[in-house]
Structures are given as C-alpha cells and as structure tokens.
C-alpha cells in the first residue's frame, strides 16, 4: 500500500540520496522538506521549502497525510561554520517536528538518523560500542551532544504515542566518493595533523549503505535503536597510506587540532572529534544484522579506497612515488661506461 513518507534535510547529501532512492522505487509518495533548496536532483520527490521550527508543521503533516517521518536533518558530519545555527536547527527543529508528530494522528512511524558519535570516545570504553553501552565520557558539546538530545525527544514520543513506531539509526562515519564532511576534509589535507603517539581504529559507512539501511527500516516499520556501519576497521595509519597523505604528529590536547582550519573556514573540529581520531570508535552492528539481515556492500577499507580514487592525489600516492623513484634511478644511472677499470680488492663498481 502506498504511503506518504516525509524526509527532512533533503538539501544535504544523505537526505537527498535517501529521498531520491525511495521515491524511485515507486512504492511510496515522498515529500522532501528543508529550509534550503536542494543542490541535487531529487527525481520524483515533491520538494516543499519549509522551516521545521515554524508553527505550520502540524497542519503540514495532516494536509499531506504523512504516515512516516524520516528525520535526516541532523547536522553532525557536515562542515559546520556556525555552531549556534547548527544547534538551533538540530535542537529546536527536532523539538517542533516531534511535537507535530505527536499531534498528528496519521503519523505511525518516525525514523531518526542519528550518529555513532553519541558514544563519545575514551581509552576506558569497550572495543566496540553496543546499543546499550553507557559511555565513560559521553559528548558534552557540539553536534554529538545535539544528537543525544534529539534521541531523547524521539524516545519521549514513543512514550506519549505508543502507537507510533520509533526507529533510531546510529550511523558510522560516512565516507565514499565525493563525500564532503569535516572528517573527509581533514583526511584530504596535503599534510594531515594527527594525534601524536596514537593510531586510532576507524570504521566507516558508505552513503549507499546508509540509504539501504534507512529503506529497510522504513519498509519494515522496525522500532528500536540500532548501530549501522561496516563490520571491519582500518587504522588511521592505513587510511593515510591509502590516501597517500603524509602526516605530522601533534599533541592530542594541543589546541592546534581544535582550531584546525578555523581561520581559513576549512573545517571545524570539536574536542569530541579530536578524541575520536585519538582513541577511535567502533560500533557493534550485530543487533541490526540479526533484526534485518542487513549486510553492508562496502567495507570500511573499500569506502576509503573509493574516496581515495576520486580525491586529489596525495603527495605519497603510489604513482607519484613510482615516478619519483624512476627519476632518481635515471639520475643515478651512469651514462658513460668506463672499461678496464681495476677496482681494489673487495670493492665492486656500480657495474660489477
């Protein structure tokens, strides 16, 4: 049966990918909402420019007879230039949207795109975070803390409206071709500043797999909280080697990492993100696999390889190194052969 699916955050990459993909299947009528017009083609998605913080959202849900709300408006991995604006959009927008869902009798399923960043990162945490893991050092600022608050609002809806299925997907770090996030920009720097003395294990999720995971829970109306990421992990050193990026060690508590790129407005790292690339963070994805049978197509390594294939070559990229070695060999190779040279005993010449 065809249902109306409302997707928020369609001006950003993941929201646009998901809305276009689920609309292309033809099973549902899809309405995309955002304050900013989308930069990507949404296909058959009906786009409505609206502010989630406005008072018209309840009537909007009833007018369009929305059955499922997929909230992809979380600004957590994007390059955030205004933390205050991100907080207002994340927190106030979610509050208004959840209140509207509570008032709308037609809404039966709410999906929140959250993030594995809600677990924080510290040396005292387990090797992998399960959905019920209580982090020793949860995020206390920035978008990761916003995600925790947004999850709390969604949980509150399930208590006030038991007839509404509530799904929370905690996604791993997105990486793949043309993915533009604070982490991907950091990995794309000509010389990558990294925490000195640490080699964090990193776990990624390709955007195509993130879209598939969202489609699975929408189709099944599956309630619960689930981690979604590739099962394997790569170290920071392995990642930089695949990208061909040289690195320079910086003290982990050095404010240089926190202020990375702020003057140039390139990226903005929070203290929680610095801890993540210091200690690492791996998600336990067994619960989602058991509930749905979902298996990501892309491993973490393959996601890094695809990102590297479409990114600008690093200074230590394989072909560049091969060309440099070949050039050195040509310079060092003798151009003139000198015959009948008697070398001292025990010493060999370059030809000998």
Can you tag this structure with a few keywords?
352 residues; alpha/beta; two-stranded parallel ribbon; disordered C terminus
Q: Could you give the count of β-strands?
A: 13
Strand order of the largest sheet: 3-2-1-4-5-6-11
Which spans of ≥5 residues are poorly predicted at pLDDT below 50?
346-352
Provide mean pLDDT, rounded: 85
Helical content class = 25-40%
Our measurement of the CA-to-CA distance between the termini, rounded to an integer number of angstroms, reads 81 Å
- The Cα radius of gyration reads 25 Å
Strand content: 15-25%
Structural class, judged by helices and strands?
alpha/beta
Secondary-structure element string: EHEEHEHEHEEHEEEHEEHEHHHHH
Instruction: Report the biggest beta sheet as strand number plus sense, adding barrel if it closes.
Output: 7 strands, parallel
Shape: globular
Count the DSSP helices: 12
Description:
The chain is an alpha/beta fold and 352 residues long. Helix content is 38%, strand content 15%. The chain has 12 helices and 13 strands. The protein has helices at residues 13-24, 57-63, 83-103, 142-160, 182-187, 207-220, 236-243, 255-258, 271-279, 286-292, 300-310, 318-332; strands at 4-8, 29-34, 46-49, 68-71, 109-115, 165-171, 173-174, 192-195, 201-202, 204-205, 224-228, 234-235, 247-250. It has a 7-stranded parallel sheet with strand order 3-2-1-4-5-6-11, with helices on both faces. Helix 1 links the parallel strand 1 and strand 2. Helix 1 (13-24) packs across helix 6 (207-220), helix 2 (57-63) packs across helix 3 and helix 3 packs parallel to helix 4 (142-160). The longest helix is centred in the N-terminal third of the chain and has 21 residues, at 83-103. The radius of gyration is 25 Å and the shape is globular. 41% of the residues are buried. Residues 346-352 have low confidence and may be disordered.
């Amino acid at each position: 049966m065809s249902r109306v699916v409302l997707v928020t955050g369609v001006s950003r990459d993941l929201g646009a990918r998901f809305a276009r993909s689920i609309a292309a299947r033809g099973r549902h009528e899809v309405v995309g909402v955002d304050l900013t017009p989308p930069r990507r083609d949404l296909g058959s998605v009906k786009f409505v420019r609206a502010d989630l913080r406005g008072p018209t959202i309840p009537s909007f849900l009833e007018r369009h007879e929305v059955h499922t709300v997929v909230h992809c408006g979380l600004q957590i991995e994007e390059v955030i230039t205004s933390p205050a604006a991100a907080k207002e959009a994340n927190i106030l927008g979610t509050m208004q949207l959840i209140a509207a869902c509570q008032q709308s009798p037609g809404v039966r399923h709410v999906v929140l795109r959250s993030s594995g960043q809600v677990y924080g990162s510290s040396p005292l945490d387990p090797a992998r975070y399960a959905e019920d893991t209580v982090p020793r050092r949860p995020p206390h600022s920035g978008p990761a803390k916003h995600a925790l608050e947004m999850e709390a609002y969604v949980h509150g809806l399930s208590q006030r409206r038991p007839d509404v299925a509530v799904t929370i997907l905690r996604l791993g770090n997105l990486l793949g071709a043309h993915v533009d996030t604070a982490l991907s920009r950091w990995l794309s720097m000509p010389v990558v500043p990294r925490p000195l003395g640490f080699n964090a294990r990193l776990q990624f999720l390709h955007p195509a797999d993130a879209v598939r995971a969202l489609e699975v829970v929408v189709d099944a109306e599956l309630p619960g909280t689930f981690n979604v990421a590739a099962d394997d992990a790569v170290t920071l050193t392995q990642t930089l080697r695949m990208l061909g990026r040289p690195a320079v060690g910086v003290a982990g508590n050095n404010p240089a990492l926190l202020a990375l790129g702020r003057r140039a407005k390139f990226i903005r790292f929070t203290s929680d993100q610095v801890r993540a690339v210091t200690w690492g963070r791996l998600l336990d994805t067994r619960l989602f696999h058991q509930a749905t049978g979902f298996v990501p197509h892309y491993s973490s390594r393959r996601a890094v390889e695809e990102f590297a294939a479409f990114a600008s070559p690093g200074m230590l990229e394989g072909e560049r190194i091969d060309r440099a070695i070949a050039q050195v060999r040509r310079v060092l190779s003798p151009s003139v052969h000198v015959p009948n040279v008697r070398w001292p005993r025990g010493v060999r010449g370059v030809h000998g």
